[in-house]
TrEMBL record:
It holds the Pfam family MFS_1. Belongs to the major facilitator superfamily. EmrB family. It is a multi-pass membrane protein. It comes from Gracilibacillus salinarum. The chain crosses the membrane at residues 12-33, 53-73, 85-107, 113-131, 138-161, 167-188, 200-219, 231-248, 268-293, 305-326, 333-352, 358-380, 401-418, 467-486. It is found in: Cell membrane. Residues 15-491 form the Major facilitator superfamily (MFS) profile domain. Keywords: Cell membrane, Membrane, Transmembrane, Transmembrane helix, Transport. Its main location: membrane. This is DHA2 family efflux MFS transporter permease subunit. InterPro entries: EmrB-like, MFS, MFS_dom, MFS_trans_sf.
Length: 511
């Protein structure tokens, strides 16, 4: 195999299937544990801040390692890279399933994350190299099933398992699938993208870890500790300095770890901007709906997960369909339609009440996921199509890194907005009830949350959730405005067909 990123005549479907399985279980695992966190808190006797690190730590490791994926994909063969990543993920899963203490479980999650960080960039890079540009929409649509459906199914599956079995079953189910994928890859996987003899700049790794790690840690901690906490804004400042230093260094290197010069391609830059905004908006429903369903409405984790299942199924069904529509019509039309639906449904979520019908919530959430399914993969694929083949690893690494960072930032912002609005609403509602004579001032000692009646706390939290969805509506609207600037990236063959006859004659004569 040459070092050029050549496109094979016949796509390696068997190899792609193996990568799909590995990527699916690694992404599924990222959201699978969220519903189980209360059970883990009880078993290991840890507080909410500590147990949250099972999710935050996973995201941190991904954010630190994903920037290096472009180097790893180019430096090592597809087979060796996948086997190494899958071995780490399988080992982490096994340790998590037998973890005797919380520290062991946290370490196991970190090992899992170190393996899963490379899965998505590797799969996307193989897909880009395996299919010609005019067929990538359908291919990436199928890939979207993994990217979108896995995290959407996670809460439903987790809710059912936790309600009927131990949280350890979450890892016991993933373990045999991961092990089978690893065994098959050893015998069946091959290399198609080629590799280059490039050296890793160690200082870039250090700056990347400080930059992305600091930002992810700071923003992830803000939801619990608040923005005024010195540790929160201190790590964000250090992370920002590290990130700026990292970018400056990459621009000076001949062979950078992460190629920021790809932003000279306008459609890729626009696709990145839209993806960042969408990732932030997407977290509004993923984070706020379980809080509304379980905490305010008192509905079980199982039913909370089931609420999201139709949306997950719709996204899975629509992903390949959207891919084919992208091949035919391009990303702009799909993105505008999808983001209009997403913005509209997000606004409707900002008006939910204490007695909103469960069926209404299911329909709204399903329509929201339907809109999302028409946006992410078409926009990302259109942006990647503009890059030279040699920059595909850089593009996929950049996209995955930004999604992790923007997801962490988005969730932190939304949680903070919800908490602050809930606190102010609780104070206002208490004062209104005291003024109306419905509440004895002696019942509320100094406004302490523990002294406020649960009905008032629930109403205040509902106001906080509604307001946060309202803010998310504007975030989604920004992405909708950006979608109007999308232009379709055409293949080289399409461009040649559209050339004037005189130009074609000149090219033939020159040949």
């Amino acid at each position: 195999m040459s070092n050029n990123h050549s496109i094979e005549k016949k796509p390696p479907y068997g190899m792609i299937a193996i990568l799909f399985i590995g990527a699916f279980v690694s992404i599924l695992n990222e959201t699978l544990l969220n519903v189980a966190l209360p059970s883990i808190m009880t078993e290991f006797e840890v507080n909410a801040t500590s147990v949250q690190w099972l999710s935050t730590g996973y995201m941190l490791i991904n954010g630190i390692l994903i920037p290096a994926s472009a180097f790893l994909i180019q430096r090592f063969s597809d087979k060796k890279l996948f086997i190494t990543a899958m071995t780490l993920f399988t080992l982490g899963t096994f340790l998590a399933s037998i973890a005797p203490a919380f520290g062991v479980l946290l370490a196991a999650r970190m090992i899992q994350a170190s393996g899963s960080a490379i899965m998505m960039p590797l799969l996307m890079n193989v897909m880009l190299n395996a299919f010609p540009i005019e067929k990538r929409g359908a291919a990436m649509g199928t890939f979207g099933i993994v990217m979108i459906t896995a995290p959407a199914i996670g809460p439903t599956l987790s809710g059912w398992i936790v309600e009927h079995y131990s949280w350890r079953m979450l890892f016991d189910i993933v373990l045999p699938i991961a092990a089978l994928s690893l065994i098959i890859s050893i015998f069946k996987l091959k290399d198609i993208t080629g590799k280059r003899e490039i050296k890793l700049d160690i200082f870039s790794i250090v700056l990347s870890s400080i930059g992305f790690g600091g930002l992810l840690y700071g923003f992830s901690s803000a939801g619990d500790d608040g923005w005024s906490d010195p540790w929160v804004y201190g790590t964000i400042i250090v992370g920002a300095i590290g990130l700026v230093s990292f970018i400056v260094r990459q621009l000076k290197l001949d062979v950078p770890m992460l190629e920021f010069r790809i932003y000279k391609y306008p459609m890729f830059a626009l696709a990145s901007a839209i993806s960042i905004v969408i990732a932030m908006a997407m977290f509004s429903a993923m984070i706020l709906m379980p809080i509304y369903i379980q905490t305010i409405r008192g509905i079980s984790p199982m039913e909370s997960g089931l609420l999201m299942l139709p949306g997950a199924l719709i996204m899975g069904i629509m992903s390949p369909i959207t891919g084919r529509l992208f091949d035919k019509y391009g990303a702009k039309v799909l993105a505008i339609i999808g983001l209009t639906i997403t913005t509209g449904t997000t606004f409707f979520f900002s008006n939910i009440s204490m007695d909103t019908a469960y069926s209404t919530l299911v329909i709204l959430y399903t329509f929201r996921m339907f809109g999302m399914s028409m946006v992410m993969m078409p926009v990302m694929t259109n942006g990647l199509n503009q890059l030279p083949a040699a920059n595909y690893p850089d593009g996929t690494a950049m996209n995955n890194t930004l999604q992790q960072v923007s997801g962490a930032i988005g969730s932190a912002l939304l949680i903070t907005i919800m908490n602050k609005r809930t606190e102010s609403s609780a104070t206002d509602i208490v004062q209104e009830n005291i003024a109306a004579g419905n509440l004895d001032p002696s019942q509320v000692t100094g406004g302490a949350e523990q002294s406020i009646p649960q009905e008032i706390l629930n109403l205040a939290m509902l106001n906080g959730i509604n307001f946060t969805f309202f803010i998310s509506t504007f975030i989604a609207a920004v992405a909708l405005i950006l979608a109007f600037f999308i232009k379709r990236v055409k293949s080289t063959s399409q461009q040649k067909e559209e050339q004037p006859a005189e130009t074609k004659i000149e090219q033939v004569a020159a040949e």
